[in-house]
Each structure stands twice: as C-alpha cells, then as structure tokens.
Design goal:
The complex is a heterodimer.
Chain A (H helix, E strand, L loop, with lengths): L8 E9 L5 H10 L11 E10 L2 E10 L6 H10 L2 E7 L3 H18 L6 E6 L11 H11 L3 E3 L8 H20 L6 H14 L1
Parallel strand pairs in A: 1-3, 1-4, 4-5, 5-6
Antiparallel strand pairs in A: 2-3
Chain B lengths: L3 H8 L5 H27 L4 H28 L3 H11 L1 H12 L3 H32 L1 H11 L15 H7 L10 H13 L13 H12 L11 H13 L8 H11 L4 H12 L4 H19 L1 H4 L3 H11 L4 H9 L1 H4 L23 H23 L6 H39 L5 H15 L8 H18 L1 H15 L2 H18 L1 H10 L2 H5 L5 H9 L2 H18 L5 H44 L4 H14 L9 H8 L4 H48 L1
Helix pairs in contact in B: 2-3, 2-5, 6-7, 9-11, 9-14, 10-11, 12-13, 12-17, 16-17, 19-20, 20-32, 21-30, 21-32, 22-25, 23-27, 23-28, 24-28, 25-32, 27-28, 27-29, 28-29, 28-32, 29-32
Classes of the chains: A alpha/beta, B mainly alpha.
Chain lengths: 200, 700
C-alpha cells in the first residue's frame, strides 16, 4: 500500500525448528555478523536487511520464531505470512531432526502449498565430533520433501549466507512464476489446480 | 445453441453471471425484441391502437432491461443474489420466449440440458468452493462486498461501535495500560487540546457523512487523524460512540437508582449516594466514565467562553449517555469529589514501525516495549479471529520490538560494564578514603541543605572544584607523606619497590585523580595527558630526586632484567642517570603547570571574595559545611553564581541526577588517569631504553 514502485522486492523468510538448534544464532550471524554464545529462548523476533541478490537489490525480512512449544499458538499467524522457510535442526540432536517433520507438516497445512520455498538446514556443523544425525539421513528426508539440504555453522559462519540467499532465490523465482499466468498469486493457483481436478 | 442459454438461465439464473453475463444479456435483449415483434403480429388481429400502446410500453421495458442488466453485473457478485433478482424480474418475457421457441428446438433442448446439467454441477461446486475459500481466506473481500451492500452500516468483523464497553476496550484498547477505548481517548484529547473554549462545544452537530466516515475507519482499525476534521465532527463521533453502546455507561441495572439519587436535594447526601453507586458499576465503565467526567468538567470550567454550563451540557449529554440530563448534571456537579484521582493524560500510541528514532533511555525503551507488546498481542488476537489484514503489521511490529530489545540489551550491557569498572575503582578508593568520598559527602550535604551546591553544568564546575582540592593537597600534604614513601622505597628491594610504586599510584589515584582527570578534560588533550601522571612526578621536587628515580628504575630494570640480564653496574648507573634526566624534564613541566593552576586559583579566589557578599546566608552556611568537610576552604565555593541561581528552583531531583551522572563521569576519569599514568611510565622507560641503545651504539 505504502510502498512506492522503487522499493526493492521484499522476501519474507521464516526460521523454524526446535528450541536451541540455532535459529537465532543463524539469523544474528547473517544480520550482524555476530555469534552469541549464551542461549536465550526467543519468543519471536523480526529483522529486515537490504541485500544484493544476483545484482538486484532486495530486502529480506527474517522472522525468527520460538522453538519452544509454549509459543506454538502464535506460530500459525506468522507462518501464514511467510514466503519461504528455513527449517533448522541441530546435527548434534536427533530429536530436533525428528521435529522437522512436524514443522514441515504445520507449514504445509497453513500454507496449503507443496511447493513453498523451503530449505532443510542442519546447523552446528562445526561440532562434527558430536554428530547424531548423518548427512545421508538428512539428505533422504530433504529428497522426500523435494527440498535442498544444507549444513551450516552459525559459529564459523559456514554456509550461513548460502542458506538465506538460496532461499531468497527460490522465493524470487516462485514469485516470477506466480505472476506470469494471469497475474494470479499462490492462493489462486492452488485453487485453479483443484478446479482442474474436479473437471477431470 | 442460442436458444438454450436463456432457458437454462431461467431455471438456474445467475449461472453464467460471473463469466459471460454481460454478453448473454445483450443477446437476451435481442431476443426480447424478437418476442416483442412476434407478439405484435399476434396483436395485429386485435387492433392497431392497442398494439401501438403496448409496443411503446414494451419498448420502454426492453430498454429498461438493457440498462439494468449491466448494472446488476457490477453490483452482484454472489450467485444467490442474482438468482432472486432475475427470476423475479422478467417472468413474462421469458414465458413468451419459451413458447415461441418450444416448437423450434425441443429435442435440442433436452440434449443440451443434459450437458448443461453436468456443467452446472461443476459450476456450482466451483462457486461453493469460492465462497468457502473467500470466507476463510479473504475476509477483507467479504467485508468489502458487505460494505458495498449495506450502504451506511459497514458490517465489520470486529466493530468498535455498538458493542459492549468491555469489548470495545479490548478491541480498541490503549497500549499504555489505561482501560479506555482509544476512540474515547482520541476524542477527549482532541477536544482538550483544541475545543475547550469553542462556543457550543458538544452542542453543535458535526457533518453526518464525516462522522460516519470516521466511525467506519475506527471500526476497520484504519489510521485516523482527528486533526483533519472539524471539532463538531469529533464531538459528534464521541457522542455517537456513547449513544451506540448497548447499555448506558452507568449500566441499565443501576440507571434507575442514579435517577433517584439525582433527585436528592441536599448536596452532601447526593454526593455520598452517587459515590456509593459509582462503586457498584464495573471497573471498565468506571474508568471510562471518570475520564469523561473529568473532561466534561474541564468543558464546564470554560463556560464563560464556550457557553456550555452544567445545565446546557447535561441537556446535550443526557440522551448521549442514555440517561436523563438530571443525572448528568448531578454527576458533573460532583465530579471533583467523585473522581478525584483521574488525570487526563494524552494518549501517545505505540511508535509506528517505520519510525526511525528510537527512544534513548532505558525507561523509555521499556515503556515503549510494553506498548508494542500490547499492540502485538492485540494483532495476534485479531488474527486468531481471522482478521488476516494485519499480517504485514505483525511483521512490522515484531521488527520494531526486536530493534527495541536489541537497543535495550546494548544499553544494559554498557551499564553493566560501567558498573563493574565503578566497583573496581570504588574498591580501590575505599581504603584511603580519598577526595571523592569527601566530595560525595559534601555535595550530598549541600543538596540536603539547599539543593543548590551542585552546579548545573556538572562537569565543568566540579572539575574546577576538584582541581583545587588537588593542588592544595599537592602543595601541602604531598611533601611530607611522599618523602616517607621515598625513603621507604630506597630501602626496599627491587620487587618490593615496584609494589610500593603501585601502591603509591593508588592513593594518588584516589585522592588526586578526581582532580587530575577533570584537569585533563578541561585542558587540551595534549596537556591533559600530562597532569594525569602529575602525582608521580610532583613528588620529585619535594622528596628529592632519588625517590622517583628509583621507582622508575624498578620498572625499567624489570624489563632490563629479562632482556639485558648481563648488564653490569655501570650500565645501570647510566640508565639511572638517563631516567633522572627524563624525570627532571617532566618535573619542570609539571611545576610550571602547578604554578599556572595556582594563578588560576588566585584569580578565582578574588572573584569569589567579590561574590561572597551577594550570596545569601544559607548558601554561605552550606559552603562553610562544604569547606569544613573537604578541608579546602575557599576553593569549593568557586561557583557562587551557580549556587545562587540554582537556589531559586527546587532542583533536588535534577541535582540528584546530575550528581549521579557526575559520579559516573568521575569513575570513568579515574580509569583514564590511571591509564595515563601507566602509559607515561612506559613512555619514560622507552625513552630510557632508547638512550641506552644509543649509548651502546656510540661506545661500540
């Protein structure tokens, strides 16, 4: 509404995953190049940054959500408005990996869209000696979902930029795709799909 | 093919509405013309006159139809609506059409009907699904449609008008904790600011359309700028809100009791009865009523200008508050007694997320954070009710909260750090009970006595003040005490000496740094660096050169111990000589500075003497207590001007704050001074080493 045409494109990214897997750490590392050692559970935080994506200036909105179940009630409201998701787990904690399935399900339920831009992220890759989740296992799950799998380390900043930029690229191409056929957006598209099914 | 569609449409009107409606319509009207022609042929038998009349009528009818159909297309979006209107409007024409067509395409009809049935089913499912998804996902659209249908009353999901007061408070609540709908608060603020002296305030009616516009904006949570509207429109808005409350703000239950009480003639009894009745109304209503009454009281207070006394105002407000004017008048008469503690505070809404300037103090940030949190909770609550419009705002508010939190955290961290250093410094200060302590007690005593001894510009004034203490001490005390230090040092071993040196620095730091630091900040930085270490070298002139020399040797030899362990006595001797030279240089510089400061003191003393006569007794008293505390008599009162000027106001709070700030600054300076001292020491060491190397090179 307010935005003039000159405003760079805005991509809305949501961080999801269990508590303590490093969602905030990844976000802060990406935003401010800082690594925070002490753990403080997030309720919800949001950040905006201007970045250059393949030569084009864009804005990224990152919503860092709570991993704890306590805040699950407000999650839906956020998920609804997200355009892409980074589903984070810790490679040192199998429970967090198992939980990614629930997050994926919740996102699909809220967004009602199988092809929503989505990345599976295995964080804490610097702690390889404590690894509990194998790369093979994670890749399998990612393949089953049809999403990329990336291992990151918020501590060493390894792949941190990559996950955000990759996701933004997906969101961007998704938007271009959606805008092509008759100016209709995601919701309309899914509706149209359904209609086809009915007719057939 | 052409014939089928109207047929189908008669049975399922509106089927093609959304897709090809307008096209079909034009065809239809063609048909109706056709039918009309045929009917006229039949009518030929009856008579031409009749025919002419009828044809005219029919033509008019057809024309009307042609005009109305596209309009309908625009208006009607839901199929159900079009069903009604269509089947109702043109039965006769279609009957005629059917008859005329019957012979031509009975069979075709049947075939096509089957096909159409299938399509129809699909289409129905389509439209149903559309409806579903709309109701779920596109409440906004739905709302638009509804507001288009209902002309004046836009049906909102969660309106603010016409709902019970607690609901309105919840939906439209102030984020600063006051339990009143924002709309009431806004209107009160607006009138308080601009309208208290306006003649006929609350009596004059606003423009109805504008009031409705505002009402709708509030219902839709749109940003509203009341300053864009007339005063009368704003008052009408408030009146509308109050009038539309499902029950009177006094509650229906108690309304009749209020009427009874209002009839009591004796004022004291009436007041008492009203008070006890008001205790029974729910807190939510009471808060709102209190604010309103306080506001109306202010209106009445300006009766001379706005011509709205209690009687005229209550005549206006009676129906608005859904009670009798008598009750309102009674409430207004006793407002000051009934709601004594209510203060109208202008509502400052949470900062909009686009705002770039964040609050700076910890308190302001915390306050803003709680507002934003409250706003966020409201957004969440509304979204949980399916109010999806606000998802953008959700991100914005969330982002703003994150920003505020980050700023708060950095502020807290900074404070922690400063506290830690403060603790450290204080720990060092404690044992010698240095000047800072004295100064603290002196200034606190002065604040309590008259609250004026603390200068308005703390830094500058205090600096002077302490500088004098130091110079005094330098000139008097240092001579004796440091002489002892010096002799002690000579006797002790090298390592011990170093300890002594450090110890020596500490008392200096405690007693003199408060002075030294200020000095450094007053003077230009270059010169400022020197006064810091002043305590160390000042000793030199008084206690004889050997003392400082040895003390510095300690450090130098410490280093030389590691690097040049094989240096012979001769080398140490030369080293000592070099150091001595360096220190003498420094000494001369510092002596010149001391004399300079002394001159300044003299100037200020004379200034002070001239001013003392103008200072009132109490001030003098405080000055004397001050000076007795610090044992530096006249120097403290170096700024009598400030004192006198400050005396006039009650600045106890300000002065307290300033005092705290000052203390913090002092601590920081202490730290700096120490650094300067150490750096100076190492500087001397380096110079000595340099000289030594030069000599070595020369001898080689």
């Amino acid at each position: 509404m307010k935005k003039p045409n000159q405003q760079p494109a805005l991509h809305k990214v949501i961080m999801v995953g269990s508590g303590g897997v490093g969602k905030s750490a990844l976000t802060l590392q990406f935003m401010y190049d800082e690594f925070v050692e002490d753990y403080e559970p997030t309720k919800a935080d949001s950040y905006r940054k201007r970045v250059v994506l393949d030569g084009e200036e864009v804005q990224i909105d990152i919503l860092d959500t709570a991993g704890q179940e306590d805040y699950a009630a407000i999650r839906d409201n956020y998920f609804r408005s997200g355009e892409g998701f980074l589903c984070v787990f810790s490679i040192t904690e199998d429970d967090s990996f198992q939980a990614t399935q629930e997050f994926r399900d919740q996102i699909l339920r809220v967004k009602n869209d199988e092809n929503i831009p989505f990345l599976l992220v295995g964080n804490k890759s610097d702690l390889d000696e404590k690894r509990k989740v194998s790369v093979y296992e994670s890749c399998n799950r990612a393949a089953a979902w049809g999403v990329p799998y990336v291992e990151t380390s918020a501590k060493t900043r390894s792949n941190v930029d990559k996950v955000f930029y990759d996701l933004m690229r997906e969101i961007r191409s998704r938007k271009i795709e959606d805008n092509k056929p008759g100016n209709s957006r995601g919701k309309d598209k899914s509706k149209r799909k359904k209609l086809k099914c009915v007719i057939l | 093919m052409d014939f089928e569609s109207p047929d189908v449409e008669r049975e399922f009107p509106g089927l093609y509405m959304s897709e090809t409606g307008s096209g079909k319509r034009s065809q239809e009207s063609d048909f109706s013309d056709d039918a009309h022609e045929r009917s006229t042929k039949k009518d030929l038998l009856i008579g031409k006159r009749k025919d002419k009349k009828e044809s005219k009528k029919d033509q008019g009818y057809a024309a009307l139809e042609g005009e109305s159909s596209p309009e309908e297309d625009l208006d009607i979006k839901s199929p159900c609506k079009s069903k009604k209107s269509k089947s109702f409007k043109f039965p006769t024409i279609k009957d005629k059409r059917e008859k005329s067509r019957e012979k031509d395409g009975k069979e075709k009809d049947k075939e096509k009907d089957k096909e159409k049935d299938k399509d129809r089913e699909a289409d129905r499912e389509k439209s149903e699904k559309k409806k579903e998804s709309k109701s779920k996902l596109r409440l906004k659209d739905k709302k638009k449609m509804k507001s288009g249908d209902d002309t004046s009353d836009s049906v909102d999901e969660m309106p603010i008008f016409g709902v019970p007061l607690p609901v309105a408070v919840e939906r439209n609540h102030c984020h600063d904790g006051v339990q009143i709908p924002v709309i009431v608060r806004d209107c009160i603020d607006h009138v308080q600011e601009l309208g208290l002296v306006t003649e006929g305030i609350y009596k004059n009616l606003g423009v109805k359309s504008k009031v409705q516009l505002l009402r709708r904006s509030y219902n839709k949570r749109e940003a509203v700028k009341l300053s864009d509207y007339d005063l009368s429109t704003v008052t009408s808005l408030l009146k509308t809100f109050l009038r539309e409350l499902p029950e009177t703000i006094l509650t229906n239950e108690l309304a009749s009791k209020f009427e009874d009480v209002a009839c009591i003639k004796e004022l004291a009894a009436r007041e008492q009865e009203l008070a006890s009745l008001l205790k029974q109304i729910p807190p939510c209503n009471m808060t709102c009523l209190s604010w309103l009454l306080r506001h109306f009281e202010n209106v009445v207070a300006n009766e001379s200008q706005n011509k709205m006394g209690i009687s005229s105002l209550s005549a206006v407000l009676g129906p608005v508050l859904q009670t009798s004017p008598k009750v309102v008048a009674a409430l207004l008469t006793h407002t000051s007694a009934l709601v004594p503690h209510i203060k109208l505070v202008k509502y400052v809404p949470p900062l909009s997320a686009g705002c770039t300037s964040l609050p700076n103090t910890k308190e302001a940030i915390t306050a803003e954070l709680s507002k934003q949190d409250s706003l966020l909770n409201q957004i969440h609550a509304e979204m949980n009710h399916g109010y999806t419009v606000r998802s953008d705002q959700l991100w914005e508010v969330q982002r703003f909260i994150t920003l505020l939190k980050r700023k708060l955290r950095t502020l807290e961290k900074a404070q922690e750090v400063s506290h830690q250093t403060l603790d450290k410094v204080q720990g060092k200060l404690e044992p010698p009970s240095g000047a800072v302590h004295v100064q603290a007690s002196s200034s606190s005593s002065s604040t309590s006595s008259s609250g004026k001894a603390i200068p308005v510009s703390p830094t500058g004034d205090k600096i002077d003040f302490q500088m004098r203490i130091v110079t005094e001490e330098k000139t008097k005390g240092v001579a004796s005490s440091d002489a002892e230090d010096g002799t002690m040092r000579e006797n002790s071993s090298e390592t011990e000496q170093k300890l002594v040196l450090k110890d020596r620095v500490d008392p200096n730091a405690s007693s003199e740094p408060p002075a030294a630091v200020p000095e450094s900040s007053v003077l230009e930085s270059a010169a400022g660096a020197v006064p810091g270490p002043a305590p160390v070298p000042t000793v030199t002139p008084v206690t004889q050169a050997p003392a400082p020399t040895t003390s510095n040797t300690v450090i130098a030899s410490d280093k030389s111990d590691t690097s040049n362990s094989e240096l012979d006595e001769k080398n140490t001797e030369t080293q000592l000589e070099l150091e001595h030279k360096e220190l003498l240089k420094l000494q001369s510089y510092l002596l010149s500075r001391i004399s300079h400061v002394h001159e300044e003191i003299d100037v200020l003393r004379t200034e002070l003497k001239s001013l003392v006569s103008t200072v009132p007794e109490s001030a003098l008293l405080s000055i004397s207590t001050l000076s007795s505390d610090v044992e530096v008599s006249p120097d403290i009162t170096d700024n009598p001007e400030d004192e006198t000027s400050n005396r006039s106001g009650n600045l106890t709070k300000d002065t307290k704050d300033l005092y705290e700030q000052n203390n913090q600054l002092m601590e920081e300076r202490l730290k700096l001074v120490k650094q300067i001292i150490y750096e100076h020491e190492s500087c001397i060491n380096l110079r000595v080493q340099l000289e030594q190397l030069k000599q070595v090179v020369e001898t080689n």
